[in-house]
Amino acid sequence: MSTAHPPNPTAEPAPTPDRPLDLAGVGIGPFNLSLAALAHGVPALRTAFYEQRPAFHWHPGLLIDGATIQVPFLADLVTLADPGSPWTFLHYLKAHERLFPFYVAERFHIERAEYDAYCRWVSEQLPALHFGHRVDAVRWDHEHDLFEIDVTRPGPAGDEEGQSPGRVHARNLVLGVGTEPYVPEPLRPLAEAPNVPVLHSSDYLEHRERLLATGHVTVIGSGQSGAEVFLDLLRNRPLGAEGLHWLARTPAFAPMEYSKLGLEQFSPDYTRYFHTLPEPVRDQLVPRQWQLYKGIAHETIDAIHHELYRRALHSDGWPGAVLTPGVTVRTAGRIAAARLELHLEHTQQGTRARHTTEAVVLATGYRERPVDTLLAALDPYIRRDASERPRVEADHRLVLDPVIKGSVYVQNAERHTHGVGTPDLGLAAWRSAVILNSLLAEPAYRLPSRTAFTAFGLQPSGRCDTVIGGPHLPDQRGPLARTRT
DSSP secondary structure string, 262-295? Predict the structure, then answer.
């Protein structure tokens, strides 16, 4: 399902009950951008994606110079589902006359800034994308058996009267609203207070110069973002007067699981296997797999140690940087105009201490962005698990009351049902293809029946010649106007 050349955007009539969209997308991050790119190669589908931001941007506050994405460049928007697509990273390089330099560079992991630029290149050419459009509410129109979507196109900044409301209709919906920065409860009052230097790492670059000029900075969080922020500060602060402290809850600053068989837990096979597990087993399993998605790249760990060693070599003593894992922040507050105090507890020792600093960078990750308000009208129809989370089927559809004839798909909101690979860029193209195939009478994209050497489970009979979720995919075929049973 490839297109020979990227097209120029063209205007289409507004979706109405008489001519609805086959699929409407809410949010345009990498996952819905992947879906839009693959959907463009399916002429039978009429799609539109809406994003309130004026243009595509991917974690702009963390595009630190030299920082790379943690998946190979083949994990772009489309390649692992359709390597012949015009929206591959290699097509992007060719369009910018950088294909040969990239070949000579022999780089498997590209910089975050280049991944962001690649995604923006795709986003600027797909006609189904509508930036500057905010989706306010979604309802089910029982008369027409369609989703009714309220969309507002904001006017100039601060001009409420300039807003242009509208309404579109769609047979199916996909939510790709992404995640939002997570601030731990003890630090939330400080982070929300004005003029207090407690910020999330997602805003790091905006405040970088001020942080470099601050006498003492504390970084909290043991993942890749925390490591990159700590390394960038360390490299750019005075020798012998680093004034840095790095805190983490994890028992160690541990490397990400990057063995070849370990990486197979980010395969479609493992995703299918995880989905078959009982809910309590899934809930116990995800926290234990933290090194799969919360660890640090080996290269970053090596770079941090090298910089610390270099500074120890060229100064009179140990560098002024302290790394302390295994601690949690119990409470936090201000003790002076320019000082912050964190009350720490060491998990293994059971000891407590006070830590003073002048600024805090929270590399504490992200949480799924709530959609309760957006889906308030659909809430009575959403089936939930024992923990009141939406139930999600294998093809990433919410389990809805049969009275709703359309489907609501979710992207990066199903870790509790699909496992640690949910936010991983490497599964983006595959998940997008699964969603598209489930909308069509005949699959648009041929997906592999097996993707890992590891057999992740046994059939209930105890035989081991067939793995759960291995050689056999769930039926991905279904008519555009799905009838739920």
Answer: GGGGGSHHHHHHHHHS-HHHHHHHHHHTHHHHSS
